[in-house]
Amino acid sequence: MSRHKQKTAPGRNLRLADQILKDLAIIIQREIDMSRAGLITLSGIELSADYAHAKVYFTVLGAEPEQATRLLNEKAGWFHSLLFKLLHIHTVPTLHFYHDPQLKRGIQMSALIDQANLPGQYTGVPDEPLDKP
């Protein structure tokens, strides 16, 4: 008898990732002291195809990202055991936390846009004619 890899339902991965993210956010809010790690917001999750590993992306305010990353990864085993009690699935993924720099990049881009939109920055008249002879 040969073993065949079963394909998962198309939306199952997304539903499971969403549920893990919701439950994990509640656990982190309850278990992590803000004075040590700052305000942590989970921004995304990537599950491996076999659900064995999860990359959890987060942003942090009020603490250094490296400090928050270290703390979250130290507590990953504890979070895993709490998730195992909440989720009714055979395999709860091993958690790996990564700081998501997108919030900082978004703030920088917003500042650049605001700077470009300052009054007097653009007159509506080009410096040179568009059609040169």
From TrEMBL:
GO function term, MF aspect, one: ribosomal small subunit binding
Main location: cytoplasm
Cross-referenced SUPFAM superfamilies: Ribosome-binding factor A, RbfA
GO biological processes: maturation of SSU-rRNA
Known role: One of several proteins that assist in the late maturation steps of the functional core of the 30S ribosomal subunit. Associates with free 30S ribosomal subunits (but not with 30S subunits that are part of 70S ribosomes or polysomes). Required for efficient processing of 16S rRNA. May interact with the 5'-terminal helix region of 16S rRNA.
Family to which the UniProt record says this protein belongs: Belongs to the RbfA family.
Gene name as annotated: rbfA
Domain of life: Bacteria
InterPro entries: KH_dom-like_a/b, RbfA, RbfA_dom_sf
Protein name, entry field: Ribosome-binding factor A
